[in-house]
Amino acid sequence: MKNKALKRLIYGLPVLLASLPFFSSAKNLTPRRDTVTAAYKLKTVVIDAGHGTRPNGTHSGASGSYSQESNVTLAIALKLQKAIEKDIPDLNVVMTRKTEADVGLKARSEIANSSKGDLFISIHCNSLADRRVREVVGHKHGRAVYRTVSVPDRSGKGVLFLVYGFHRSEEEQEALRENLFEEKDNSDQQDILDNPAAVIAINAFKAKYRKQSIHFANMLNSEFTEGDGRRSDGVKEQGVLVLCHSAMPAVLIETGFINNREEEDYLNSEAGQNEIVASIVRALSSYKAELEQVSQ
After folding, report:
1. Ordered alpha helix ranges (H), the chain
2. Which domain holds residue 188?
3. Which among 2, 95, 110, 157 counts the fewest CB atoms within 10 Å?
């Protein structure tokens, strides 16, 4: 077999499979405490500030009454970078963007994968869609006449943590295949596709990374709810492209509802942003210590 990387992965497959205990199903995203994968070092974390400003000056992402999601996520991400470098100095931080300029979803994943990231954290703000309601606009022949209108829904509050859904597993498999092997020519890639042991190994990595994603998301949820008293919608799976294209454990954090004025004020305040950052750093420190203790 001419693909050296494929050989190494196949030879190491028994060790990898032995390190994979049972993990939670898609229906129950709260893993047992004993499901942390062994033999895993956390060296590089990728921080992704969601959305950005397009070349034409418009903002991608959600909007509040006076702020844009793209600006809030960048402010939080930059604070998070500084906090990690200060509190976890042996952890390398890679940013998908450091300016207001938007970065494409594929480019974000490429940055994460090319940096050999061990964990991907995407920062976002949530927003509820307008509600459709019927209102009376008059009467005709003794009957009320209605029209349907859109009404802003400002009721959203709290955090939400997303991991990629199984329905995008083929896309994640492609990202893993590209990231796990050194050779990129078509013949070597076909060797990988045609080799059952390689397919088993890739699937094992998928299971490993999904389990770790869910575990870290639950750690984040605990820090936000128990440490800061934030309301939470918990950990959910969703077909987020940037998560499934990143060949590593990945979590998207919806830090709050920007279209709720109270939440928007919190997300834009120094105190609110610092609290969010502190919660993430606490979870990250615990996650890193837990992994490296298990791998000793």
Report:
1. 4-11, 13-18, 69-87, 105-114, 169-180, 186-194, 196-222, 228, 241-244, 261-268, 270-294
2. 4-13+43-129+149-294
3. 2
Number of domains present in the structure of the chain: 1
Task: Give the pLDDT confidence of 208-229 residue by residue, as tens digits.
Answer: 888 999 999 999 999 999 999 9
Q: Which residues are 43's β-sheet partners?
A: none
Long-range interactions of 267-270: CB distance < 8 A, separation 24+: 267/64, 267/67, 267/72, 267/76, 267/125, 268/67, 268/72
Q: What is the pLDDT of residues 47-67, one digit of tens each?
A: 999 999 999 988 888 999 999
Residue 24 within a domain? no
Within a domain: 37? no
CATH code where residue 261 lies: 3.40.630.40
